[in-house]
């Protein structure tokens, strides 16, 4: 993969992420206590041997850039190649990513890599892209797309793209998952192609003005270009709504999923923060939860994700919740199916309950 340039295209639709993306991009939303959404695709690329990665982001990128630092956590702090962030465009990449690429085309043209890998950030998995590149070269495809067969498409991956593939493993059409079918081939929105082919796509789209999205160009030219498909068999989640974000966090409490994502031979990296171990008191009770460093717990915690420096007060009962960093949960608080955003303060004796299908999202709550 040293001959491949990585592009992380933050063109995800954030319309169903609610308050979680008011002040940040989806890529920088905290996940599993100590990680961010973008950590997974960044780690996958770095673990696969990609040495040059460009992130094409949008507005509200302060939190993301602060998290990325100089790329050191992913071994991307280099003079040559390394990590580059592009957020200079006036175009919303969810509507028009072609112009974002065109305005920064020098980054791509000056790269000496032969191939290019494009991926979003919100597809959560642990994948070895080197296997995909080998398949792409062997199959002599113009473009190779990555997909996963799922048996619960009627409940998950809603509004994601689905692929129709013929007997020769070639993509013949691309649709949208509206939840009507249980079994589907979910498009992971990851594409491998030659760099020159990608540049030609950009120039053609700018010249004729027909397509404003890379995905639209591919979907509308399946008859004229050879688009193959690579099947991924591991764990996959798409964070494109509050519900999917909540479910993905709780998935990571599952031991098998947690081991696959974080403890195989290709780990997920993140920005390190020097924190002391979490402190538990004699009256605290924590079961089946992920707790990051620096927290202080006096209450009861069950099936929860607890972020860095979170405080759970005495007598509090927290169940099926995602508590982000720096949250303060007061004494005797009862919470169930709740997402508490970074720095949220919940006053003592409050009761906040959502449901499994409709978790409640709360942000900073302060007394007057």
Report on this structure:
By secondary structure, this protein is of the alpha/beta class. Helix content is about 20%, strand content about 25%. The protein contains nine helices and 28 strands. The chain has helices at about 40-45, 60-70, 100-105, 105-110, 130-140, 195-210, 215-220, 240-250, 255-260, and strands at about 5-10, 30, 35, 50-55, 80-85, 115-120, 125, 145-150, 160-165, 170-175, 185-195, 225-230, 235-240, 280, 285, 290, 295, 300, 305, 310, 315-320, 320-325, 330, 335, 340, 345, 350-355, 360. Strands 5-4-1-6-11-8-12 form a seven-stranded mixed beta sheet. The chain has a five-stranded parallel beta sheet with strand order 14-17-20-23-26, with no helix packed on it. A hairpin with a 3-residue loop joins strand 2 (about 30) and strand 3 (about 35). The longest helix is centred in the middle third of the chain and has 14 residues, at about 195-210. The chain is globular, with a radius of gyration of 21 Å. It starts with a strand and ends in a 6-residue tail after the last strand. The model has no long low-confidence stretch (mean pLDDT about 95).
What is the SS-derived class? alpha/beta
Strand order of the largest sheet: 5-4-1-6-11-8-12
| Uncertain regions spanning at least 5 consecutive residues | none
Helical content band: 10-25%
Distance between termini?
55 Å
Rg from Cα: 21 Å
The fraction of residues assigned to DSSP E strands is 25-35%
Count of runs of 4 or more consecutive helical residues: 9
Overall geometry comes to: globular
Biggest pleated sheet:
7 strands, mixed
């Amino acid at each position: 993969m040293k001959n491949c340039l990585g592009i992380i295209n933050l063109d995800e639709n954030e319309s169903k992420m609610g308050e979680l993306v008011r002040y940040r991009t989806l890529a920088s939303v905290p996940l599993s206590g100590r990680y961010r959404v973008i950590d997974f695709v960044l780690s996958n690329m770095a673990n696969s041997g990609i040495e040059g990665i460009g992130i094409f982001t949008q507005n509200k990128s302060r939190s993301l850039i602060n998290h990325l630092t100089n790329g050191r956590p992913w071994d991307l702090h280099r003079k040559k190649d390394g990590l580059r962030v592009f957020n200079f465009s006036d175009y919303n990449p969810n509507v028009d990513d072609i112009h974002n690429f065109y305005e920064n085309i020098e980054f791509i043209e000056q790269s000496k890599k032969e191939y290019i890998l494009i991926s979003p950030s919100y597809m959560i998995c642990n994948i070895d892209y080197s296997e995909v590149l080998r398949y792409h070269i062997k199959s002599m495809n113009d473009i190779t797309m990555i997909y996963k067969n799922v048996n619960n498409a009627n409940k998950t991956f809603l509004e994601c793209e689905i692929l129709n593939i013929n007997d020769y493993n070639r993509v013949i059409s691309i649709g949208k998952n509206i939840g009507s079918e249980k079994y589907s081939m979910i498009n992971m929105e990851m594409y491998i192609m030659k760099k020159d082919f990608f540049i030609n796509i950009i120039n053609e789209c700018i010249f004729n003005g027909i397509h404003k999205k890379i995905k639209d160009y591919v979907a509308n030219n399946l008859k004229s270009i050879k688009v193959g498909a690579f099947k991924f068999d591991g764990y996959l989640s798409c964070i494109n709504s509050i519900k999917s974000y909540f479910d993905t966090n709780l998935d990571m409490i599952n031991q098998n999923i947690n081991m696959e994502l974080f403890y195989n031979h290709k780990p997920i990296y993140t920005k390190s923060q020097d924190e002391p171990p979490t402190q538990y008191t004699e009256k605290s009770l924590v079961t089946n939860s992920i707790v990051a460093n620096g927290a202080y717990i006096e209450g009861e915690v069950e099936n929860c994700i607890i972020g860095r420096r979170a405080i759970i007060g005495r007598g509090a009962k927290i169940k099926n919740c995602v508590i982000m960093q720096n949250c303060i949960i007061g004494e005797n608080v009862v919470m169930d199916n709740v997402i508490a955003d970074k720095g949220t303060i919940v006053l003592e004796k409050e009761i906040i309950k959502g449901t499994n299908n409709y978790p409640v999202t709360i942000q900073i709550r302060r007394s007057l």
